[in-house]
Amino acid sequence: MSDFSRLSLNTATTKKWTLEQAVAGCVKAGIPALGPWRDRVAEIGTERAAKLISNVGLRVSALCRGGFLTAADPAGREAAMADNRSAVLEAEILGTAELFLVVGGLANGEKDVVAARHRIADRLDELVPFAVEHGVRLVLEPLHPMYAADRALISTLGQALDLAAPYPASAVGVAVDTFHVWWDPQLQEQIARAGRDGRIASYQVCDFNLPIASDALLSRGMMGDGFVDFPTITRWVAEAGYTGDIEVEIFNQEIWDSNGNDVLETMKSRYAELVLPWA
Q1: Which one-letter DSSP state was computed for residue 63?
Q2: Residue pair 107/71 in contact by the 8 Å Cβ criterion
């Protein structure tokens, strides 16, 4: 019998489900953890969401997400910082120590990548003390380079680790998301580095599908449907010392249009086949 004790459902995978439905689905499927997105939490309120999840014995693996730190104008900057402070407080209430940050791309009309990355570093520096005060670790997530212009100017695990380096590992960690980093020729080296530094805060699994969807965000697939070598990457993550939850986060219209309970059963089956033996 497979051990699903580390498996977590990211609510993006069952996008059409409410938080209540996602919680019920996890309980029915025997999945012990949930990685909620803030929009699902907001629909019922953070306090109610926390009670809903904890009352059935689920744990929150991480909260998605804060970030988008690159606004070039003062009003945009303050709005982003206020939203990130709110996200930290939501994570604290939900009982998770991990808050994902998608750091942001270029500001409107901007082409200065260097300046935008400096703003990310500056605003992370401003946010870290607030997060630490509330017992929340900021989790930097490198995104595939095709999202650099509009979503994340951190594309590699190495970049994320460099940005995290000035801070304690308990304050700033990194995520290893197979969809985003599978292609990186330095991936094994950087996962090992992250492990040595104690910075692996999350391991997210899904596949990289082709052709790229017309909306590139929807190109994530169920494990085994694309090009990711899950046994190898999972082994590297395990060798780096990571023993935390393993989240399945999939943006895919066909999966979203499928029966949610069936999706969870497929997710468990693929996890047991392609991830668990090497975790």
Answers
A1: E
A2: yes
Whether the CB-CB separation of 94 and 50 falls below 8 Å is answered with: yes
Task: Name residues whose C-beta falls within 8 Å of residue 103's C-beta, 6 or more positions apart in sequence.
Answer: 67, 68, 69, 70, 120, 124, 140, 141, 152, 153, 154
Write down how long the chain is. Answer: 279
Global pTM exceeds 0.90: yes
Sign of CA dihedral 50, 54, 56, 58: positive
3-state secondary structure of 178: helix
For residue 252, the SS3 value is coil
Tokens describing residue 15: 């996008």
Give the model confidence (pLDDT) of 141-173 as tens digits. 999 999 999 999 999 999 999 999 999 999 999
Q: Is the peptide bond before 168 cis (omega within 30 degrees of 0)?
A: no
Rounded to 5 degrees, φ, ψ at 150 are -115, -10
